[in-house]
Amino acid sequence: MKFHFFDPASDVEVSRRNLPHWEQRDAYYFLTWRTADSIPATVLDQWLRERGQWLTDHGIDPAQEDWQRDLEKLPEAEHREFYRRYTERWHRMLDACHGECVLRDPNVSEIVAENLQHQNGHPYELEAWVVMPNHVHVLVGVPGRGALKTLCRNWKNYTAKRINQRLNRVGQFWQWESFDHLVRSEASLEKFRRYILDNPGKAKLSEGSYRMWSKGQQEPRCAPK
Fold it and tell me: Can you tell me whether residue 131 is helix, strand or coil?
């Protein structure tokens, strides 16, 4: 199946809690979801307040569902400033490895890896993914429109149940909300792929404390510690 890059002229479905979620038909997405303890609540609340103030200062209402569309209309320098201050910072907070980081355990990360690969090729098509100690990045083509939320929810629900069983515990494992980004071009697709593949090195992780896969690779990589 042929997937497409973000088309600003096409219809977009927008939903949100704290983060906006945009969907288009047959599109590529860069997804991130994280363990419930991956970012301390006080740190996350401060990030949200600062991001909201920045948007307000630039004439954008952060309470509106389509605030990201207004962000895209800003001059390139201001758009880059937002990405540097808030998007990059979000990922740095994750890479700081807050929380218990149970996904370091290969027996736990294996559950996520197997679930991602289970239906790869139909209905969705994976480009790359990495299971970090407290979060997961996925680059994927998703068919149809409105399917992204269901797909991500299914991944999270299944793996949370299996991981809790493996660890002999109950309760929330993943944070309810995920971060998703519509991929805009071939260059952007490769940028996200490179980000995924470079992520363990940037976070200074040792072999065996993460799992990683990219299209064309036969098996997920998880060398022994």
Answer: strand
